[in-house]
Write a structure and sequence with these properties.
flat; electron transport; transmembrane helix; 0% strand
């Protein structure tokens, strides 16, 4: 829609003559914002933590040695997987760098061939 149709005047009017439309808050104001930080104290909590750490229901402060052994074996498995993945990613990074080095090495020859082809 053009300015002339809105104002019913021919041509453009000055910006100063336009009505001021300003946004404001809704009637009654905005709803309160939740801003509290809820940072968990541990990544494992609740029933799973009690199970992994060997909590036995009915025995306050005592741990079942079999469950403690299970937790230790889970942690060892986790460390082994993390180390293995880290070494694998190191190898992948080395292979990528080798590929890029080979590309950089032949780039001048490819550029020279392209220049010869484009020459008149």
């Amino acid at each position: 829609m053009t300015e002339a149709m809105i104002r019913k005047k021919p041509g453009m009017a000055s910006v100063r003559e336009m009505p001021v439309l300003q946004d404001g808050p809704p009637p009654g104001g905005f709803a309160p914002a939740r801003y509290a930080r809820r940072i968990p104290t541990s990544r494992i909590h609740g029933r799973s933590r009690r199970f992994l750490l060997g909590h036995v229901p009915g025995r306050q402060g005592q741990q079942d040695p079999q469950l403690k052994c299970r937790f230790d074996s889970i942690m060892v498995d986790l460390v082994v997987v993390v180390v293995h993945e880290g070494l694998f990613l190191k190898d992948v990074k080395a292979l990528k760098e080798e590929k890029y080095a080979a590309r950089r090495a032949i780039l001048p020859m490819l550029q020279a061939e392209e220049d010869e082809r484009q020459a008149p």
